[in-house]
Amino acid sequence: MLQVVPLKAFKDNYVWTLRNERHAAVVDPGEAHHHPDHVGGIAELLQEFAVPVYGPKNEPIATLTRPVAEGDTVTLQELGVSFSVLDIPGHTRAHIAYYGGGALFCGDTLFACGCGRLFEGTAEQMYASLQKLRSLPDETRVYCGHEYTLANIGFATVVESANKYLGTRVADPVRVFAAIRDWKSRF
Questions:
Q1: pTM above 0.90, yes or no
Q2: Set 12, 23, 108, 182: catalytic member
Q3: Is 38 one of the annotated active-site residues of the chain?
Q4: Domain layout of the chain by residue ranges
Q5: Is residue 146 annotated as part of the catalytic site, yes or no?
Q6: CATH of 3-186, one of 3.20.20.70, 3.60.15.10, 1.20.1250.20, 3.40.50.300
Q7: Would you call 33 a catalytic residue per the annotation?
């Protein structure tokens, strides 16, 4: 059975480990590069393991061995799972997500109570990307690239001071991740 295990990295990053009894894969191994907190650890991993490295086709990531874009499928045969690649620009111009097995690995596009900052993309691209993610099934488990929940709630409280739901989320830390799909109703 596939397990998804978070590994904390840096100040607030997640490196997601997908594993079963014998094999593992990682999503967003961070360190130093164009988007250092998500890809910089790849070179070090490749020194130890001869593995394929999937990533956005239109990003300058030297360690990629298998560039992918929307419409591509990434199959991790040893883990018994396949992921559809989704182009979700906005945070960066060529940001991608992986969707499969009821899980979404969305990097810096979607977070609990918020979305990613615009570094290279536009607000229009981010909105379109969020609409694409909104179309996924409600039961989709969302794995984002950072833990920004409390900061996002703080910002949202300023913008929507009458929103009682935000106060409930802060008062009950267990619910901070529990209702991540509620973002869909906002778009």
A1: no
A2: 108
A3: yes
A4: 3-186
A5: yes
A6: 3.60.15.10
A7: yes
